[in-house]
Structures are given as C-alpha cells and as structure tokens.
Amino acid sequence: MIIAVDGPAASGKGTIARALASHYGIPHLDTGLLYRAVAAQVTRLELDPALEADAIAACDFDDHLLGDAILRDDATGQIASIVSAHPLVRAALLQRQRRFAHQPGGAVLDGRDIGTVIAPDADAKLFVRATPTIRARRRHDELHKRGSAISYDQVLSDIRTRDDRDSSRSTAPLVAAADAMELDTSFLSIEAAISRAIALVDARLQR
Ligand code: CDP
After folding, report:
1. Whose CA is nearest to atom 9 of ligand 1?
2. What's the rounded Cα separation, in Å, for the pair 115 and 7?
3. Ligand 1: centre distance to CA 135 (Å)
4. pLDDT for 167-184, tens place per residue?
5. Is residue 130 a contact partner of residue 15, using CB atoms and an 8 Å limit?
C-alpha cells in the first residue's frame, strides 16, 4: 500500500504522514529531507544553488547528513526550494524515492510531487493545505522552540517565496494530483487532522 501526502511548507503534511505510517504500520519517508540535504551540501561546498551543475554536484551526499539539525533551518529550506527546481536534481533523487515507495508492504511518502510524479499509482493521495499565515505561525513556533530568533514576518515572507517558487517551476510543480483528497488543516488540531486523514485514507482503501 502506497500513501502519498503532498502539500506546501508547514501545512501539516509531515505530521500527518508520520501518523499514517504509524497507524498502518508501514515506513515513512520525508522526501523534503533529500532536497534539504542537497541544499546543506551546496552550502558546505560553497556552491551556487541557482546553477544546475553546482546543485548536481551536491546530490551525492552521505546519508548521515539526513539526521543533521542544520537540515531543519529556515535558510536550508529556502536553498532546498532553489535546488529542487533543477530537473537534473529531481532526476538524481527520483529512483531512491520510487524504490522506497515500492518496497514490499508499502510506504508513506510526503513531499510536493509524490502523488503526481514519484508514485502516481499510490493507493491513497492526500493534498494537505492551510492558509499561509497559519502555516507561518506554526513554522515560527517550531523554529523558536529550536532556539531560532527569526521573526514571524520573515517566516511568512519565506513561506510565500517558497510557495511561489515550488508552484511555478516547470518540473514537478507543487500541485494536487487530480485524484488527491484535499485536507485543509487551517482550523484543525493535530489530533483532528490525523483522525480526518485516517478516515479519508480508510475510505479510499475500501473503495
Ligand atoms: O517542511 P517543509 O514543508 O517546509 O519543507 P520540505 O518538505 O522539507 O521541503 C523543502 C523544499 O524541498 C520545498 O520547498 C521544495 O522546494 C522541495 N521539495 C520538493 O521539491 N519536492 C519534494 N518532494 C519535497 C521537497
């Protein structure tokens, strides 16, 4: 069983994907971490994220990097959204994500293009939304808990920039798959969002 969870930054897709994985007893992959790892590697090697050749050179990262706290930084997310617009970067990370999706027993993946590109054959697809201001509030709280001094206005502006870049790129833009079930978490608690997600997936699996 493959479950695809897509949506913009801080929409709640990661929390929902992790909860679905635990509910159905299958592994989960946060695909954003792969693009964040490329971004961190670009920074470490002092490369230019806007240059496709530079970004490609950063795709060969050590898997240990995936656990590094630097990946969660707001700045890393911004650079991730620049490197992820390059078609060759997306191609370099594609097989790894497809292999994870198609492992025996199934998997939950969250990202931007899981339902459209990585696993168009997924058994259930969710597209998670929330208003930009609510997403900025959540991300700001999250970053503050981790010790960041970034302002709410900066987080909101970064989220809007990333939304625009992710939605307007020509390769695998952030868009709901035609057969995705929409879930707006703007006014839902975490528990309510998870229950709703499980109910939607159950309903789709029983069809
Ligand atoms: O956690 P958050 O939603 O803020 O970001 P993320 O899922 O870690 O993704 C960081 C960036 O990687 C996004 O802004 C996208 O540009 C890119 N990304 C992508 O292009 N495709 C994916 N499947 C996942 C992330």
Report:
1. 32
2. 10
3. 14
4. 999 999 999 999 999 999
5. no
